[in-house]
Amino acid sequence: MPRFSIHDEKRLKELFQEHKIPAFRYGQIENAIYKNFITDFDAIQTIPKDLRELLKEHCFYQSLTLDHEATSSNGQTTKFLFKTQDDLLIEAVIMRHLSGRNTLCISCQAGCPMACTFCATWKLGLQKNLELHEIVEQVMYASRALHNEWTRLRNIVFMGMGEPMLNYEVMKQAIYIFTHQKKFDLSSRRVTVSTCGIVPGIKKFTQDFPQTSLAVSLHAPNDEIRREIMPVDHTYDLSKLMASLDEYTDKTNKRIFYEYIMINGVNDHLKLADELGKLLQGRLAHVNFIPYNPWEGTSSDGYSTTPRFIIEKFQKILEKYGVVSTIRATMWDDIDAACGQLARKKKQEKK
Ligand code: SAH
Q: Which of 135, 159, 257 to mutate for ligand 1's pocket (most ligand atoms within 8 Å of CB)?
């Protein structure tokens, strides 16, 4: 029998039943893993030795290995590049905020099938959907790192590699582990799922997770431009997307985060700010402008970042429509921290 992950609650409970182990032991193990951040089964002193041996025989604690770790020069951002058992590279990034509200950006797929032109991940193609434990282990690893800095993880965003709505069932189980009181115990609204706009996924999400935060990579206010940079728009155009988002806000009364990457000369024309304003006017929205992060020096598509003063003009125009926005700080320039950049670089080095 292959071993299973310690995060697989169902299998672990089955194992306990088979071996007539009292149910309360599960709580002790849960406590050791998620609250005390033990690193191996021998360190769980609250359980008897034979149970520790049983765990060692049937379970594994961590399948990912750390391939590379980099912290930005200002100390705010740490990027982890992990290798899966099947030798795929995935990334997770800690963003430390001065307020102490640390955020972890996690991956849900190795590679990505969505083919957004500006994103480094898609050039890898979809390698696989991550398994539950591979997602949870990213959080485990980062939580331990923060614990060692006397602080803790407060927010999780599914904004690393991959499209969470395409690994829906696993994402669902991962959110259960992130928010369960006896596990990571994060507040639901501090978990954010970011999607490029997979409408059926958004509909399911609205039913399953009315408390969890939703971000949408919008990147353009009309189908013409959106289609050029995000092929998903051919399947789910803006009218379908906005209708599904309205259902979400109607049901949850929660503000949606709209991500808008600023690419020079592609989607940053000031008349688009008016279009964006008209699109989001009256909707529960918060726009996050993300300065395009070039990969490999300059992108193969010749993309470059919109100058800051233009982004600020965009923001002013949106204000006229009563749409709030922020400009995301690029805290990670020196470590290739944007989505897929490091994994892609490493893969190329190997060639
Ligand atoms: N598939 C999901 C989550 C992963 S992408 C989604 O599309 O939302 C996470 C965010 O990073 C998205 O908003 C994406 O558009 C942005 N991103 C990707 N490549 C980028 C780059 N080169 N510079 C800045 N942001 C980028």
A: 159
